[in-house]
Amino acid sequence: xxxxxxxxxxxxxxxxxxxxxxxxxxxxxxxxxxxxxxxxxxxxxxxxxxxxxxxxxxxxxxxxxxxxxxxxxxxxxxxxxxxxxxxxxxxxxxxxxxxxxxxxxxxxxxxxxxxxxxxxxxxxxxxxxxxxxxxxxxxxxxxxxxxxxxxxxxxxxxxxxxxxxxxxxxxxxxxxxxxxxxxxxxxxxxxxxxxxxxxxxxxxxxxxxxxxxxxxxxxxxxxxxxxxxxxxxxxxxxxxxxxxxxxxxxxxxxxxxxxxxxxxxxxxxxxxxxxxxxxxxxxxxxxxxxxxxxxxxxxxxxxxxxxxx
Length: 309
Known about the structure:
By secondary structure, the chain is α/β, with parallel strands linked by helices. Helices cover 42% and strands 15% of the residues.
């Protein structure tokens, strides 16, 4: 009886009980199948070390990587009517919104923030694909416009990190109206003489590509990002031809003039900062070089003193 209580039952219990070990400790690279420890991946800004595959990241994380010290101030965005069309497919639209807000802890797909990048003030908006595919609805359109207005008020460059499947079908024509509205916001930036930099991430498609995502002064893209209006299969069925390999990927689009540069995520912050400095005709902040000069100066003086002796 003691053997059953002390040995058999504990083994059966341990077999039936679920372990508390998280299931996402190891993450599989979609490109190579390599398993990467999640802490190593997060420390590398969610870029798989060996394959250089850029994984999707949350909007809040992207802002942390972009602004100095990960510190930024969130810009409050205007409220919009919820479910103005009383839309329902397999679920009610209001229920889909609740699920997305619970999952992402965001009010909608676009976040707007302001802070310093390499010592200079900047305003940025980021689309979070986890929120209903980063779709463009009334709330997202209002957020983008608010970000552009904030940039004009503070006289800062405006950076748009685009990631979207297109317009939000649950809002119908009200969603499509955000395309020309955001175009007006882009014109506001141009009238104010402020840089508008667009960073195209994976994926950027549909109505977003047909509006503000392709109206920047400079278009940057992350490696391997899917960028286009319609899907590849739809295009092939329409023109009845096989499309080239890598079609609609950022590297292909750079070669064909649709994107200006493909920039690694680690270099994105400095690249954007340098572009804004060039467009605004201001000197780049290079504290690392200044610090190096301060270190080199005493060493040079010591060498001169030794030579004189």
